[in-house]
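User: Here's a chain of 468 residues. Predict its fold as tokens.
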Amino acid sequence: MYEIEDKQNREQYRMERSAARRDWLKNIAIAFLTIMLILTFFSNTIMNYSLPQVATQYVQQGNITPKVRGSGVAEVEDPYSVKAPNARVISAVNVKVGDVVKKDDVLFELEDAESEELKEARKEYNDAKAAFQKALFSGDLTNEAVERIRNGEYLTEDEMQERLDEVNSDYEDALEEDTEAGLAVQRLSGASDTSGLGDTAAAEKAARDAKKLADAQAYKAETEAELTRATNEKDATIKSIQAELELKELQKTMETAQAKVEKLEKAEKGATVKAPIAGTIVSIAYNGGDTTSSDTTAAVIQPEGKGMTVSFTCTKEQAQMLKVGMEAKPQNEWAYSEFKATLSSITADPSDSSGSKILKFEIQSPEVEAGETIQLSVGENTKSYDLTVPNNAVREDNNGKFILIVSSKESPLGNRYIATRVDVQVLDSDDLLTAISGSLSGYEYVITTTTKPVSAGMQVRLAEDVQQ
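Assistant: Prediction complete.
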């Protein structure tokens, strides 16, 4: 009986040890598999994070609109600058930017005060008047000339030339007579030749020669006096004419200064600045209480019937698909209820040697103000294509143009994504999309951007595929 019990105990003990051994082996296997799964998971995660991350978009049907887009500042076409009297205080501004004004509408009201500009003009006039009077009574003018000029009468150029000719002719005649008289005196100044004559005849001849010399000397004194008179008259006439010419210029200066004073006085009596033309106010330089300056334009008026212009540059290739007269649209059409823009000119950009062009547009819109930045797009009509991709998805190498799409492969640990090359032909493009043809069915995922260089056959990680 005891042997049977002992045998049963040994058998139970053996079975318990066998079960414990199996549990131990099972735990080891579970632990090993767990470790392997953890290692595999982390190695897969590490590998994924080391892969280039790519952003993708669908290859899908789309519209190509070959347009040129740009922005520029709205400027007034043929602006009219309104000036205000210098150094005047603005008492009121009667208009604001955007107001439509008629000719002679009051833009600014000025305080009643004499401007510094008027004070300076008065000083200039007084200085010019003093200079004129000083020259008038300098003594260089004849009494006749002074009286005549005081009555506002000046000699004409022909009259001046006639007087000069007269005194020059008189001087030349007097000089000629004096010269001849001097020669006669010289001829008669020698000793009387009485050789071969008797005493009586010699005395008589000497007396006759002496009388001739005395007469010649007396005539020489008369010609000298006449030459002195003619010289003085010539000098006085020349000096008088020169003084009269100077006075004429001084009087012009004085009259100009006087006219300026009268103009400023007239302008300041009304104490307002009016619109010289009809149009729209596009800028105002002053507020109430400001003091005007000659260096500042008080206001700028856009003439009636004139619009605004916007200009920006584009490449030579972009300009080739445009032509003058094409209509442009604002890129933010929702912001305007009334807007029209027309391409008015295409010109070379002088600051760029690469051949870029300047596009100028005429803008017609009551909602656009001078100085506002306007974004425009202009180009051909929209075309629809079955396959379009973003421009940055199209690549090129020595074998031609291609795209990289993402192909999916299943694995025990999930999907793996492979970059696959698809050769394509570019059909059309604009600044956003490119229309293509190739071995595509549509709705493939095309790679647009990558964090690292990617080539065909490489495994990649999708931008939204973040492994934890």
